[in-house]
Amino acid sequence: MTSFSRITGTGSYLPPRRVTNDDLARELAARGVETSDQWIVERTGIRARHFAAPDVTSSDLALEACRHALEAAGRRADEVDLIIVATSTPDMVFPSSAAILQRKLGVAGCPAFDVQAVCSGFVYALTVADALIRTGTARCALVVGAEVFSRILDFNDRTTCVLFGDGAGAVVLEASETPGILASDLHADGKHAGILCVPGQVSGGAILGTPLLHMDGQAVFKLAVRVLEESARATLAKAGKTEADLDWLIPHQANIRIMEGTARKLKMSREKLIVTVDEHGNTSAASIPLALDFAVRQGKIQKGDTLMLEGVGGGFTWGAVLLNL
Ligand code: ACO
């Protein structure tokens, strides 16, 4: 009897267009918006991000990430019996990006749905997939974070448009007799919805409100550092572990100062922190599986290592997953 789920392969994909801070500063200057590489690096740790071409959607990025993850797991798409995509920038209002992805993978029949928890989306999706595997509903899941955040950025707002990028990351999560996922912890508090949102909706064929990202950066910063520490501690406690048991911390890649602040509070050394925000920017739901895959492919993270994945984002939502790879 299988009672656990375990990651058996990771994959990721970045669209080819890499935009450095200097490139972005030049593009923004043409609109009369002033920023600089120095400001962005000092405040966020971001040096570059990738932007998808206009005709490329989240499911296109997800497809490439899934191909790499399936290859790493030694699985074919037709062996997958569950697809969950975490995204806040889906291809359409409906159907889900997961259903579109399923078709692009050339398979049919298995359940496929999106999870909307903004930058916490991947830890939410992983927790749902783990639960479905533990109950025997699924045996081989694709869990994906995929975003084209460039579509919802206001390039006249320098306080937000320099922070985000596009990309996708995926894992294959399979039923296992030995524990992979050890514990998880999910939360939301909707009273903070206004500090990070895209306050627009489709109605009667028109867009009501503003379909561009709005953020109160300082409010987000304070909340993020607090809840990331609390969630990491709660997850460790559920698994009967301590910070000393962790080999790697993979927080949502939003801002190096938030990430280093969390590591400091958990008394983890900087060497144990996986950082890709410098090259990817904030890719929302994609950031954690992207960082995981990069660290695995660099040979930093090894099979058997104990990892803490942590997300925080709009909603407000937050959570963590503790796992053995
Ligand atoms: N380039 C140059 N100057 C800028 C820029 C920019 N891109 N953006 C803002 N400034 C200016 C401001 O106008 C302000 O100027 P002023 O003093 O003349 O008014 C000055 O820089 C300081 O602005 P603050 O907003 O106070 O800067 P702060 O130190 O708070 O840094 C930041 C802003 C980086 C957004 C910070 O608040 C932060 O990191 N917040 C966390 C938000 C985050 O990471 N969000 C990601 C999404 S949420 C998530 O994923 C969890």
Write up what this structure looks like.
- The chain has 325 residues and is α+β, with helices and mostly antiparallel strands.
- It has 2 domains: 4-176, Peroxisomal Thiolase, Chain A, domain 1, CATH 3.40.47; 181-324, Thiolase/Chalcone synthase (Peroxisomal Thiolase, Chain A, domain 1), CATH 3.40.47.
- The chain is 33% helix and 26% strand.
- It is built from 10 helices and 15 strands.
- The longest helix is centred in the C-terminal third of the chain and has 23 residues, at 217-239.
- Bound molecules: acetyl coenzyme *A (ACO).
- Residues 35, 39-40, 43-44, 119, 158-159, 162-163, 196, 215, 217-218, 220-221, 224, 252, 254-255, 258, 282, 312-313 line the site of acetyl coenzyme *A.
Primary descriptors:
325 residues; alpha+beta; Peroxisomal Thiolase, Chain A, domain 1; 2 domains; four-stranded mixed beta sheet; globular
- What is the number of domains? 2
Sheet with the most strands?
5 strands, mixed
For this structure, the CATH topology of the largest domain is: Peroxisomal Thiolase, Chain A, domain 1
CATH superfamily of the largest domain: Thiolase/Chalcone synthase
Query: Any ligands, ions or cofactors bound here, and which?
Result: acetyl coenzyme *A
Give the SSE map.
Elements: E1 4-13, E2 18-20, H1 21-29, H2 37-44, E3 48-50, H3 58-73, E4 82-86, H4 97-104, E5 112-115, H5 121-134, E6 140-148, H6 158-161, E7 166-176, E8 181-188, E9 196-197, E10 200-203, E11 206-209, E12 214-215, H7 217-239, E13 248-251, H8 256-265, H9 277-280, H10 287-297, E14 306-313, E15 317-324
